[in-house]
Amino acid sequence: MAIFLNKESKVIVQGMTGSTGMKHTKLMLADGTNIVGGVNPRKAGTSVDFDGTSVPVFGTVADAMKETGADVSVVFVPPAFAKAAVVEAIDAEIGLAVVITEGIAVHDSAAFWAYASSKGNKTRIIGPNCPGLITPGQSNAGIIPGDITKPGRIGLVSKSGTLTYQMMYELRDIGFSSAVGIGGDPVIGTTHIDALKAFEADPETDLIVMIGEIGGDAEERAADYIKAHVSKPVVGYVAGFTAPEGKTMGHAGAIVSGSSGTAAAKKEALEAAGVKVGKTPTETAQLAREILAG
């Protein structure tokens, strides 16, 4: 089972013909992802060969969907043009847009998030500034390494790309139903709560791992949601226990102001909701093992 992405998903890549898009399209294909096209208005009508797999290039998302039945787009478009690319995907009403691009202006992210909402949220946005999502053994939409885990019973939702990879590797012998990197920017499409809701409804996810980090109140809101709506065991990790107050750390959203947004406050809120929280990623993985062995 899976959330948001499975072996039936037909994936297109906006920005496929750029160097980053080419590199990761090749890797996604190697992971078994059903990539049916790329989008580049200047190269429409051409195709790109990836180790013997020919992938056609279309002028627009709408054209690609019409010709291939695509229902997922992965966006590798530079920051200045990313808003237009996401708006195009929303206008075409593709079901899922995975925005990998880092460095998109918060104003642009807020604009395309609001635009998706105004159009009835027909397009789920994951990201921006995220590693994407993977359903091991089925499909990989983004930049998560496909060889660090296997299919299994754990659902993972994470703000941090690097910690996504570490957690998948730590628990590789158990495996994952799906892993979703939601990104750490101040404005993102899919939230911890969206993923928790989907994992709760997925019959083949037995346990959820949630990775947060300092800044904002997303983890506190997720804790409230878990308390009210999630029956499955959840283990958590919050990055940034040693972060200095008032300094932005790494992700644009990771800034502590006053007592809100600290790792300690988030840990406290999650534990009050019954979530076991590890002090390190390794300890968090061990907590997951103990619950599943239970």
UniProtKB/TrEMBL annotation:
Enzyme class: ligase
Metabolic or biological pathway: Carbohydrate metabolism; tricarboxylic acid cycle; succinate from succinyl-CoA (ligase route): step 1/1
GO biological process terms held by the UniProt record: tricarboxylic acid cycle
Binding, substrate: 165
CoA-binding domain sequence ranges: 4-104
Recorded catalytic activity of this chain's protein: GTP + succinate + CoA = succinyl-CoA + GDP + phosphate; succinate + ATP + CoA = succinyl-CoA + ADP + phosphate
Entry similarity comment: Belongs to the succinate/malate CoA ligase alpha subunit family.
Subunit structure: Heterotetramer of two alpha and two beta subunits.
Name of the protein in its database record: Succinate--CoA ligase [ADP-forming] subunit alpha
Species for this entry: Streptomyces montanisoli
Designated gene of the protein: sucD
